[in-house]
Every structure is written in C-alpha cells, then in structure tokens.
C-alpha cells in the first residue's frame, strides 16, 4: 500500500499530498526563514514529482532570491513551500503537515544567522550554513 502524508495551510485553501515517506526535516535559522516564519523554519526536502498541490490558485509565490521562490497562501498567509527554481525539489513546512509525520528533526542549518533570543540545545548537529 502506498503511503501518503497530507497537509495544508491554516485556512485550508491550499492543501498538498506527498507520496512516500518524508525526508528527515531540518530547521533553518537564516534571516529569510526567520522573517517569513516568525521564528525558525522546519521543513522536509522532497522531489516535486512526489508532491501534489491542490488550490494552487490561492498560492502566492515570492521570489526571495535568484534561484528560490517561497510559496504562501494568499488568504491566510501560511508559509508552506520553499522551491528552488533550478532543480526538481521542493521543501514543505513541517508545521503544515497533518500528524503523524513519522519523522524527527535531523539538524539545524544556517545557525550563523540565528536569532539572539534563543539557544539551540537539543543536541542535534548544527551547520553554520
Ligand atoms: Zn490559507
């Protein structure tokens, strides 16, 4: 039996379905992810071919850098997708998934840009970039 993980934005206008297991998520502490999420952003990297998005007309894509666009719901503002335009991958916000996700956070990235108001103390690997 094929396994699926589903989820969506806060208002429900945008939903998604992922075929197969989720990749182990990481938490990104870069300036862009902190600003867009309000703290740091945990996501799982997936192949676009395994991801089905419904309600895409409610999605707004923000081009945050030359090679990356970020997808938010235009109605409720949920930050759902981080999508490089140069390959076939897409990262989806862990907080947007229905539970159980069946994965555990694996590492912290861009910790060189982390906020000064918290410590990372869960013992997971930390990458400065
Ligand atoms: Zn929404």
Would you write up a description of this structure?
The chain has 129 residues and is mainly beta. The protein has a domain of 78 residues: Metal Binding Protein, Guanine Nucleotide Exchange Factor, Chain A, CATH 2.170.150. Helices cover 5% and strands 40% of the residues. It is built from 1 helix and 10 strands. The strands form 2 sheets. It has a 7-stranded mixed beta sheet with strand order 6-7-8-9-4-3-10, with helices on one face. It has a 3-stranded antiparallel beta sheet with strand order 1-2-5, with no helix packed on it. β7 and β8 form a beta hairpin. The longest helix is centred in the first third of the chain and has 7 residues. The mean pLDDT is 97. The structure holds zinc ion. The site of zinc ion (ZN) has 9 residues, from loops.
Please identify, by name, the CATH architecture of the domain at 4-22 and 45-103: Beta Complex
Task: Please summarize the sheet with the most strands.
Answer: 7 strands, mixed
Radius of gyration: 14 Å
Query: Globular, elongated, flat, extended or rod-shaped: what is the shape?
Result: globular
**Which oligomerization state do the chains in this entry correspond to?**
single chain
Give the beta-strand count. Answer: 10
Strand content: 35-45%
- Return the string of H and E elements: EEEHEEEEEEE
Mean pLDDT: 97
Structural class: mainly beta
The unreliable regions are: none
Write down the CATH class of the domain at 4-22 and 45-103.
Mainly Beta
In spatial order, strands of the major sheet run 6-7-8-9-4-3-10
The share of residues in helices is under 10%
What's the end-to-end separation, in Å? 38 Å
The CATH topology of the domain at 4-22 and 45-103 corresponds to Metal Binding Protein, Guanine Nucleotide Exchange Factor, Chain A
User: Any ligands, ions or cofactors bound here, and which?
Assistant: zinc ion
> How many separate helices?
1
């Amino acid at each position: 039996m094929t396994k699926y993980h589903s989820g969506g934005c806060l208002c429900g206008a945008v939903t998604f379905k992922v075929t197969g297991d989720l990749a182990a998520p990481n938490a990104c502490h870069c300036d862009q992810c902190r600003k867009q999420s309000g703290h740091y952003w945990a996501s799982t990297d997936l192949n676009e071919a395994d991801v089905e998005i419904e309600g895409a007309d409610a999605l707004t894509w923000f081009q945050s850098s030359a090679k990356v666009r970020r997808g938010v719901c235009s109605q409720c503002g949920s930050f759902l997708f981080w999508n490089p335009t140069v390959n076939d991958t897409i990262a989806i916000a862990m907080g947007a998934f229905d539970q159980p996700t069946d994965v555990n956070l694996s590492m912290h990235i861009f910790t060189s840009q982390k906020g000064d108001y918290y410590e990372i103390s869960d013992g997971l690997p930390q990458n400065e970039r």
